[in-house]
Amino acid sequence: MNTDAVTPRTETVETETGTARVTWLDAAAPRLLLALGHGAGGGIEARDLKAIGAALPAHGVSVVLVEQPWRVAGKKLAPAPKTLDTGWRGLWPALTAPGLPVVAGGRSAGARVACRTAAPLGARAVLALSFPLHPPGRPEKTRADELLGSGVPTLVVQGGNDPFGRPAEFPPGDYRITEVPYGDHGFAVPKKSGTTEERAMQILTGSVAGWLADLA
What we know:
With 216 residues, the chain is α/β, with parallel strands linked by helices.
């Protein structure tokens, strides 16, 4: 889908942790709303978030890209997980206002927030992009409990070379996982791999679209 096919609309939402910003990419006849938060080291310009925002409205899914208050305020370091969760919960009334089932999601730290808050907020499911299973080189510092405890249908999309957790490192559980071959934590792929960023994003968006279709 051409990124020009959907005109974004942006609004600010006040939360207990400050002013958040949401960018809506509306489907013509939506059946679901997919809300995606960013990671601790970047914003909604991440390649995977942009690709999903461009592709999913054509599949009847409105996409909302969420910028946490710390990011809107121009801070460089993300706050503690509890603060991120509070900000996300504060956004929830705006996300549910259209009356659609909401799939919570995000990349990296945003995926962790979605997993931790999904069941209490009544999310339909969770999309975890580049879930940081552990810090690089520290597999003993696992965050698997957050993923396994989401309490709702969950899809993980993980780069094959993600230093925060390669697909083979993920424990058995009641979730689905898709590998983006050769992808790193940001789904960048090396030229020597023989694949391209375009192909990597096709794998990612195709997996997400198919999974969301199964949810409906």
